[in-house]
Specification:
Number of domains of chain A: 1
Structural class of chain A: mainly alpha
Helix content of chain A: over 70%
Oligomer: heterodimer
Largest sheet of chain A: none
CATH architecture of chain A: Orthogonal Bundle
Strand content of chain A: under 5%
CATH class of chain A: Mainly Alpha
Largest sheet of chain B: 2 strands, antiparallel
Shape of chain B: globular
Distance between the termini of chain B: 14 Å
Structural class of chain B: mainly alpha
Number of strands of chain A: 0
Order of helices and strands of chain B: EHHHHHHHHHHHHHHHE
Shape of chain A: globular
Distance between the termini of chain A: 63 Å
Largest interface: A-B, 48 and 45 residues
Number of strands of chain B: 2
Number of helices of chain A: 12
Strand order of the largest sheet of chain B: 1-2
Radius of gyration of chain B: 22 Å
Strand content of chain B: under 5%
């Protein structure tokens, strides 16, 4: 297998999960556990596809997917932040609603092809032998996802707003006592997470496949959730996790195509098995770093 | 200004009222959705909720389907509710359901074509064990390493789906099936076919098991010390630990019960309504059962009613697809909305809504 193609396809395969995971990391950093990533991704996938097909512009598709999923995620925000519902149950509900909604919207788009997204040709860098086609001949979303990781890292580490977000996630009572708007911060984080998941979903339906089929995200949202745990809530960890996972996916797909003696089903289940194994290793190590208020409902007593 | 004031205890009135409210809201919003799809809203709602039971032409066929669909939903949801009460989130019931079906069918097919009544109970036990074993994986990982059971149980659904695919295409494939994927059809094997017990009711062994599970769960949760420990673990984990309840035991117990029940549901389905192991054998009961468990307020008798209601939406959805050309996916959305509205209106159960004047800082 050509190493250039291998690295390039790993980057493509990792991008949707990276986008969804970095968004979810911000959500969890604010103390909210949104298990609806899969639902938000699939809504992004279908909306992105629908908009791109009808407008002919994949860029508009990505934009629309981000907005649609952000709005969709606000339903989760409304329920958990204002109506104080259980976050686990509501996140599951969001996934179930998203799967149904996307299947309903997508039924008209099955079998169609998405307009293809142009590859960015970075002058200079793209001409480097081997490294050029490997790293610098992708579409803009791949670079956007990497830039987003860097931006989130800088935001959480160096900005005041990032500090407030972390404070809200670590101890919402104290943050509230200091006068920070816990619910408002969390709603913004949830919408950001939704937008990222939407972008990730649209990347699956517009670039990776590129087609719409029902339930096409196939657990990518859940894997993104696992990657946040794997990353111990650090942006760099999310990046490593997503690329590791992308690597596993690409390698098993290549093995399937090459027709090895390993049963196809064993290869197809390997990404999920590896996710479990990685989760076990991380939890056994005991280094958690989960935000203190993660998943706890906040109700201002005063 | 609207303020929420936490109730000292959840309101009993609202606990019973919110599911009804959620159903009404779902009908309203669903009706609007159908209208947007260009379908007559009132007719669509009637087709989903009324016609399966009372339509002069279709009811004869669809009424028995009610128990056929409700059986597995109730059986799985009862198991899940036990765990949810303890704050243990097994959301991989779909995988346990598949593994139950595969294990039970494998044991049965190993004895093909034996003709003894003993085989069916043996398969039921194998099915329960299959689901149980599949649920023991997240239980073991959680107790031993502290791994999140939500993610592990869910990942195992995808693993189970691949095992199902390999079973139906490979090691459980019908040797007389001319190479087509899918196992032998249990409907053509009288001694293990899980047929209707009473003609035209849809009542098969899985439904009987569901009813037994409802009563057993009620006894466990309301009358038995383990049920008390489970509830204590969910509501006050620290208090539970101080009173000597082992969290690990509760995790094994809850995941074990839900896994075994889901596995059994899978076995009854594969030997009955489904008939054979095939690649698309699972139909999402394991996920819908989560909605059923919440809609039934995690209460066994509530789950019984919720399971019947959810079964009704399945059958009504199929009917609406047939008669009004409603997209099949809209019913999935309908069920999801039901859960959403339930969670939203639940705020009245735990909080009092107070209208206050402008607050003085």
């Amino acid at each position: 297998m050509d190493p250039v193609l291998l690295v390039a396809s790993i980057m493509v395969s990792a991008t949707p999960i990276l986008l969804a995971a970095i968004g979810e990391m911000v959500v969890e950093k604010s103390g909210v556990l949104n298990l609806g990533v899969e639902g938000m991704m699939i809504v992004g996938a279908v909306m992105g596809f629908a908009i791109a097909v009808s407008s002919g512009s994949p860029v508009l598709g990505f934009l629309g997917a981000a907005i649609a999923s952000a709005v969709f995620s606000l339903a989760f925000g409304l329920l958990t932040q204002y109506l104080l519902s259980n976050q686990v149950a509501t996140g599951l509900g969001l996934t179930l609603v998203g799967l149904g909604l996307s299947a309903l919207i997508g039924s008209n788009y099955e079998g169609q092809r998405a307009p293809s997204l142009a590859k960015l040709d970075i002058p200079g860098l793209g001409d480097i032998p081997t490294l050029g086609p490997m790293l610098f001949a992708h579409d803009f979303v791949v670079y956007l996802s990497l830039a987003l990781v860097a931006a989130v890292w800088a935001f959480l580490k160096y900005t005041r707003a990032g500090l407030i977000l972390r404070a809200v996630g670590e101890d919402h009572e104290s943050a509230h006592a200091l006068g920070y708007k816990v619910v408002r911060v969390r709603m913004m984080a949830i919408a950001f997470g939704g937008a990222c998941a939407g972008l990730g979903g649209a990347y699956v339906s517009l670039v990776r496949v590129p087609q719409w089929t029902e339930g096409m995200t196939a657990g990518a949202g859940w894997i993104a959730l696992a990657i946040v745990v794997f990353a111990s809530w650090r942006p760099l960890g999310v990046l490593i996790g997503a690329y590791l996972f992308g690597g596993v996916t690409v390698i098993q797909l290549n093995l399937q195509a090459a027709g090895t003696t390993v049963p196809v089903e064993l290869l197809s289940m390997s990404p999920y098995l590896i996710t479990i194994i990685v989760l076990v290793i991380i939890s056994a190590r005991g280094a958690h770093g989960a935000p203190g208020s993660l998943g706890r409902p906040f109700h201002a007593a005063s | 200004m609207i303020r929420l004031e936490k109730r000292p205890n959840p309101s009993r009135l609202w606990t019973a009222l919110t599911p009804v409210l959620a159903v009404v809201l779902t009908m309203l919003v669903g009706g609007i959705m159908f209208a947007l799809l260009g379908k007559p809203p009132l007719e669509a709602i009637r087709t989903i909720f009324w016609d399966p039971l009372f339509h002069p032409q279709f009811a004869g066929y669809s009424r028995p389907q009610l128990l056929v669909k409700a059986g597995p939903l109730i059986l799985i949801a009862i198991g899940l509710s036990v765990g949810f009460r303890a704050g243990i989130w097994n959301i991989g019931a779909e995988g346990q359901y598949i593994m139950g079906a595969v294990c039970g069918a494998a044991v049965g097919l190993a004895f093909y074509p034996a003709d003894t009544w003993l085989l069916f109970p043996l398969m039921a036990i194998a099915g329960a064990l299959g689901g149980w074993a599949w649920a023991m994986i997240p239980a073991f990982l959680k107790t031993r390493f502290g791994t999140n059971e939500i993610l592990v149980s869910l990942m195992l659904v995808y693993v189970a789906e691949n095992i199902l695919a390999s079973a139906s295409a490979g090691w459980l494939r019908n040797p007389e099936g001319m190479g087509f994927p899918g196992s032998r059809n249990f409907k053509q094997w009288a001694s293990v076919y899980n047929d209707e017990l009473v003609i035209n009711t849809g009542m098969h062994w899985g439904v009987v098991a569901a009813f037994i599970a409802v009563i057993a769960a009620y006894v466990l949760m309301a009358r038995h010390i383990q049920g008390f420990n489970i509830r204590l673990t969910g509501e006050a984990p620290r208090a539970a630990r101080f009173s000597g309840v082992s969290p690990a035991r509760i995790i094994f117990l809850c995941l074990g019960i839900s896994g075994a029940l889901a596995g059994m549901a899978g076995l009854f389905e594969v030997t009955g309504p489904a008939g054979q192991i095939s690649i698309d054998f699972n139909s999402g009961y394991g996920f819908t059962a989560i909605i059923v468990a919440f809609l039934g307020r995690l209460n066994p008798f509530g789950i019984l009613l919720a399971g019947l209601l959810m079964a009704l939406t399945y059958i009504g959805g199929e009917l609406a697809q047939l008669m009004l050309g409603l997209p099949g996916a809209s019913i999935q959305l309908f069920q999801g909305m039901l859960l959403f509205f339930l969670l939203a209106t639940d705020v009245f159960t735990n909080y009092r809504v107070r209208l206050t004047g402008r607050e003085v800082a």
